[in-house]
Amino acid sequence: MADTSATSARPWTRPHDWAEVVLGVVLALSPLWLDTSTAAMWTMIVLGALIAIDGLASLAMPGMVYGEGIQIVLGALAVVSPWVMSYTDLTGAAWTSWIVGALTIIAGAAALPLASTAHRTAGQH
Question: Start and end of every SPW repeat-containing integral membrane domain (predicted)?
Answer without folding.
Answer: 16-109
